[in-house]
Amino acid sequence: MLAGKAYRSRLLVGTGKYKDLQETKAVIEASGAEIVTVALRRMDLSSNGSLQDVIDPRKYTYLPNSAGCYTAEEAVRTLRLARELGGWTLVKLEVIGDRQTLYPDVAETLKAAETLVREGFQVMAYTNDDPVTARKLEDLGCAAVMPLASPIGSGLGIQNPLNIRLIAEQAKVPVLVDAGVGTASDAAVAMELGCDGVLLNTAIAAAQHPVMMAEAMKAAVIAGRLAYLAGRMPKRDYATPSSPEEGLIPALVARSGVTKE
Predict the structure, then answer these.
(1) pLDDT tens by residue, 92-124
(2) Could you tell me whether strands 144-147 and 11-14 are parallel, antiparallel, or unpaired per DSSP bridges?
(3) 19 noted as active-site residue
(4) In the β-sheet with 197-200, what is the strand arrangement from edge to edge?
(5) I need a surface site. Which of 13, 72, 88, 212 has the fewest CB within 10 A?
(6) H or E, element range at 173
(7) Residue of 92, 111, 136, 218 marked active site
(8) How far is CA 186 from CA 36, 177, 209, in A?
């Protein structure tokens, strides 16, 4: 459930960095995603030959984002434009604080989130992997919190699994790992930590075979969620035999020469 709507897929994918719109379409279909992110500052949704011509907004939920914004004012203005262009109110808030790491500016993110929520937007907020910041965003009324796994586009995977788990455990709104996923195992780990979903773009777009990677990400998110629900075995320092020694058939024990001693 996200902003009052049910989705089957827990994988969200971006629409940037592909060689053309046909590859974008093929990747999204292979991923099974139902929500696609769109950077308003980089993509014109109103012109002919736009994304809407190949990715039907009646079939997919568009998630406009404020990628490339460095102040709360700039982000709010950008996302207001999303509402004016297509009536979109479910948005991804992203306020960058550092050009090299693309880490979020927490203070500006909180400021923008407060304004957008007050104006009726359903805000999915990109943030750092700090449980305190995540809680503040939830308290402001954000529909979801989206902690980074590692810097955007780095492919380094989850660098601080403890914090991601803590955020997922305390949150009462969906938690989605956003940024830093590099391959399918990273997505699976995010889900095993208790996250509700994963949002990614570069991991698929920069793969040698993007459509194949999209299929891998789909499977990884499903596997990770199932593993989380199943409950993993406890970790132990020493080996434990897969076949218990209790209840051995006496005759077989005698023939093997094994004694109780």
Answers:
(1) 999 999 988 899 999 999 999 999 999 999 999
(2) unpaired
(3) no
(4) 144-147, 122-127, 90-93, 61-65, 35-39, 11-14, 197-200, 176-178
(5) 212
(6) none
(7) 92
(8) 20, 10, 18
